Amino acid sequence: MKRIILFATVLFISTFNLQAQKKKDLLDEIDKLRKELKTTKGELNDAQKKTKATLTQVETMEAQVKDLKETNASLLNNMGSFTELSKKKAQNLEKSLESIQEKDKQLKSINDAITKGDSVKLATLTVLKQALGNDAKIGVQNGVVLITLANTVLFGDDDKSVTVQDNAKSILGKIATALNAKPNLKIIVEGNSNALNFKDKNLNDNWDLSAKQAAAVVRALQNDYKVDPKRMSVLGKSEYGSQSIETSTRIIVDAKFDEFYNMVKENMKNASKS
């Protein structure tokens, strides 16, 4: 009986100790789980904070992406406008360049025509100087060749004479020879007279006298030396045209203005074709 009680007591004590150990182990496990739960909650809290921060960052990035898309669209639109504007400017520049090139051709054609006209004047001046030597004053003034002959050489000492003297015809002959060698040149004979009285002559005044003296020279060139009268004109300037004390008659030699105009027009036409 004692053995049974002892055994029961040992069994009870063993069972009690075993249960106590299990309880302790269970409490330790619970404490461990609590710690793990606490750690997990902390990690979860950190994860939630990181997630929230990430979501905020994502929202910020999405807003930035949206702004970039809008900016890109605006840039593309502006680039299209700029491209169109640049294209129009390029077209305008091209048209301006074509216009400048056309004007340059026109100016070149005019310059060529003027140069050609100047060459004609220079050649005429050279020919006349070679022909006349010191018999007459020859020069270029205002783009024309001038031959100046004293009225005393042409008409003698009588300041109201309208008859060309015989000794002046040799000079007119030399002038006519040079002029006939260049049939395309126009000739104006300009009379300048400064007589003081007209009581003894059938003349009204110096206007009348200068015109008749110029006409006498033209008549001599036409009748004696076969200069084409269609090339010649008479101009009377009276005493108001005289540029010196000694009165004189001037023969003005110039290229025909209509031929010069036609030459320029033709050059401009050829330049525009090329």
Automatic annotation (TrEMBL):
Alphabetized InterPro entries for the sequence: Bact_OuterMem_StrucFunc, OmpA-like, OmpA-like_sf
The UniProt record lists the keyword Coiled coil: yes
Pfam families the UniProt entry points to: OmpA
Coiled coil: 16-110
Lineage: superkingdom: Bacteria
SUPFAM superfamilies: OmpA-like
Keyword entries, A-Z: Coiled coil, Membrane
Protein name stated in the entry: OmpA family protein
